[in-house]
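REVIEWER CHECKLIST
Item 1: Sequence provided? yes
Item 2: Single chain? yes
Item 3: Sequence as submitted:
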Amino acid sequence: MSVWRHLRAVLLLPVTVTVVVPGTVLWRTGTDVSTWPLAVAGAVLIALGLALVAWTVALFVRRGRGTLAPWDPTTRLVVDGPYGHMRNPMISGVLTVLLGESALFVSLPLLLWFAMVLAVNAVYFPLVEEPGLRRRFGAEYEAYRASVPRWIPRLRPWKLS
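Item 4: Structure as written out by the authors:
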């Protein structure tokens, strides 16, 4: 699988949502660094979110044999790692980065961007992504979907039997 395939998907999706749009918002609205406790909390959230996104992208490469992009999806269902705890850890990572950015820069416009990304994905997943996963992976996905929550993580990871 080509590195360019993955790089294109990462640049077009998570980087646009977490870097390009927030950078543009901050450029247009101005920036202000928060007080140190909020700045530290924001930096921690950003680091945790980036780690989660990197982990999920790596799983898509190694286990899923595809990319995070809807136009170039995985060919295998990925249900381990953070996917054993929740069905959408990649978007959860992206949302965590956005929340951290809004805290770090004390930015209401970035918090609104976070809310918009959450709302779009809350509609997209059940209406578009999940039906596509049902078609591609059938009963295997149905068992996973029935046992693993979309957003709130399970404490104990689910394992495909």
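Item 5: Key structural point noted by reviewer: Residues 3-147 form one domain.
Item 6: Recommendation: ____
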